[in-house]
């Protein structure tokens, strides 16, 4: 298992460009299974989760080519459906969360799919009910094999219907949507997730010949079609990387320019950082973070303590709360970080407390951070990355700390951040990969 050794206290300067979005890549790559024609996808990030999904598709006999860096073509004209029955398929698809989204396309096009318990971060219960119920409503049946711990999904024929999702699940909406585009008749999905990556997936499916309306809202209407065609698609910049760079710049007192951020799709992320007192300057599609000698957390209008909480889009993404939390430790003032969606994502605060941060973990979902201002530097430490976003938060903490820190289990960071050590070293960080 690799590690990072980080010499803290170095300022960053210059320009950095975010990679293509991990979570969009996982959706749109699954969508290539919906057509026998060639689909070209640009701005594909070179990260562990995405590469594992592409390999899984290759193993299913999808023809995959990489004509240029970041560009892939996929052609699913000769899928090996027998492969889905193998232990290898089950093991590989269980290793990442995104692979669950092959189910909708496979069931829609071939009438069968398998679902092992999916991987992804161990950040609390991650149920799949929304996926199951939605795809069942379209006419599929699910049979559980307790020995292999896998669900077999079968559908002779999918039929459009109305459904009200029990929660606005991101991958659940993507999965149901990809099944509904080839179902007969009209499907209406209410309480659909509507974040930018789902908007991108819907736009791509519509270019392939699907008929989805209501894109960007929580009410999607899909008129089923009998086949889909090839297309070309470009993945958005990764908003979680953009947010991580904003926080990193503020906490290390650096002046950086984040290029091509997809600003219009960042929702309330920039304003949420502004609430921590960080100057976030929009320059066209770029974001400039000037040097901060200090930053002071705002209060609510009535003077009460600021809360940064996640919510389904257009609320604040839960994937950035670990970054907000770490950045608040060096702010002036206090903030309540409320992670509503996941119940095990805040435990990494123990490590920040060891580094000298003042944090009260109120319960698994809430932590109060008492910002000490940057006059009190965090101390270097030896850390283990528990999940992808705590991992980047710990990296930011180590970059701002006095002394040399080590972070173990950095596979958890590599899962979502492309060449993060090299890219940060180019703008002044001192990170060594062991
Ligand atoms: C591969 C991928 O795209 N992963 C993302 C996706 O995961 P994923 O699609 O697995 O997450 P879901 O949207 O299904 O739900 C995430 C968690 O939030 C809870 N929940 C969800 C909706 C809701 O209205 N109320 C609620 O409490 C769920 O019970 C679950 O515990 O979306 C999550 C939520 O943005 C992100 O953290 C993940 O990075
Ligand atoms: C939780 C995340 O990923 P996954 O859903 O793949 O575990 C994430 O991207 O923050």
UniProtKB/TrEMBL annotation:
Domain Enolpyruvate transferase: 7-422
InterPro entries xrefs: Enolpyruvate_Tfrase_dom (IPR001986), Enolpyruvate_Tfrase_sf (IPR036968), MurA_subfamily (IPR050068), RNA3'P_cycl/enolpyr_Trfase_a/b (IPR013792), UDP_GlcNAc_COvinyl_MurA (IPR005750)
Active site feature: 121 (proton donor)
Protein residues bound to phosphoenolpyruvate: 22-23
SUPFAM superfamilies: EPT/RTPC-like (SSF55205)
Swiss-Prot/TrEMBL catalytic activity: phosphoenolpyruvate + UDP-N-acetyl-alpha-D-glucosamine = UDP-N-acetyl-3-O-(1-carboxyvinyl)-alpha-D-glucosamine + phosphate
Keywords in alphabetical order: Cell cycle, Cell division, Cell shape, Cell wall biogenesis/degradation, Cytoplasm, Peptidoglycan synthesis, Transferase
Pfam families in the record: EPSP_synthase (PF00275)
Residues reported in the UniProt entry to bind UDP-N-acetyl-alpha-D-glucosamine: 97, 319, 341
Keyword S-adenosyl-L-methionine among record annotations: no
Main localization (coarse): cytoplasm
E.C. numbers: 2.5.1.7
Record keyword Cell division present: yes
NCBIfam families: murA, PRK09369.1
Stated role: Cell wall formation. Adds enolpyruvyl to UDP-N-acetylglucosamine.
Protein name: UDP-N-acetylglucosamine 1-carboxyvinyltransferase
Organism, as annotated: Parabacteroides faecalis
The encoding gene: murA
């Amino acid at each position: 298992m690799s590690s990072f050794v980080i010499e803290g206290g170095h300022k960053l300067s210059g320009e950095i460009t975010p990679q293509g979005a991990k979570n969009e890549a996982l959706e749109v790559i699954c969508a290539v299974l919906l057509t026998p024609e060639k689909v070209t996808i640009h701005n594909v990030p070179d990260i562990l989760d995405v590469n594992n999904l592409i390999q899984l598709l290759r193993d299913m006999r999808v023809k995959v080519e990489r004509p240029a860096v970041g560009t892939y073509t996929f052609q699913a004209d000769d899928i090996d459906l027998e492969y889905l029955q193998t232990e290898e398929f089950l093991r590989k698809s269980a290793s990442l969360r995104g692979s669950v989204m092959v189910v909708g396309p496979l069931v829609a096009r071939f009438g069968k799919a398998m679902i092992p318990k999916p991987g992804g971060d161990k950040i609390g219960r991650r149920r799949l009910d929304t996926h199951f119920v939605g795809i069942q409503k379209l006419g599929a049946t699910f049979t559980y094999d307790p020995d292999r711990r896998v669900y077999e999904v079968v559908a002779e024929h999918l039929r459009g219907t109305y459904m009200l999702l029990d929660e606005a699940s991101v991958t659940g909406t993507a999965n149901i949507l990809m099944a509904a585009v080839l179902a007969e008749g009209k499907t209406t999905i209410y309480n659909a997730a509507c974040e930018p990556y789902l908007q991108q997936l819907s736009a791509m499916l519509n270019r392939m010949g699907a008929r989805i309306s209501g894109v960007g809202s929580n009410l999607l209407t899909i008129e089923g079609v009998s086949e889909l065609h090839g297309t070309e698609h470009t993945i958005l910049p990764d908003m979680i990387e953009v947010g991580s760079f904003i926080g990193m710049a503020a906490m290390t007192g650096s002046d950086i320019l984040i290029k091509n951020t997809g600003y219009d799709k960042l929702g309330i992320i920039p304003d949420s950082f502004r609430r921590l007192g960080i100057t976030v300057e929009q320059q066209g599609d770029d974001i400039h973070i000037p040097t901060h000698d200090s930053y002071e957390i705002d209060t609510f209008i009535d003077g009460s303590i600021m809360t940064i909480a996640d919510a389904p889009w257009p609320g604040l993404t839960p994937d950035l709360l670990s970054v907000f939390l770490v950045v608040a430790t060096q702010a002036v003032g206090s903030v309540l970080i409320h992670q509503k969606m996941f119940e095990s994502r805040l435990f990494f605060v123990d490590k920040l407390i060891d580094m000298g941060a003042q944090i009260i973990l109120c319960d698994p979902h809430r932590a109060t951070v008492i910002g000490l201002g940057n006059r009190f530097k965090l101390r270097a430490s030896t850390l283990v990355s528990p999940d992808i976003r705590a991992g980047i938060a710990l990296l930011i903490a180590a970059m701002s700390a006095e002394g040399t820190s080590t972070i173990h289990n950095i596979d958890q960071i590599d899962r979502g951040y492309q060449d993060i050590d090299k890219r940060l070293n180019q703008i002044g960080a001192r990170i060594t990969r062991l």
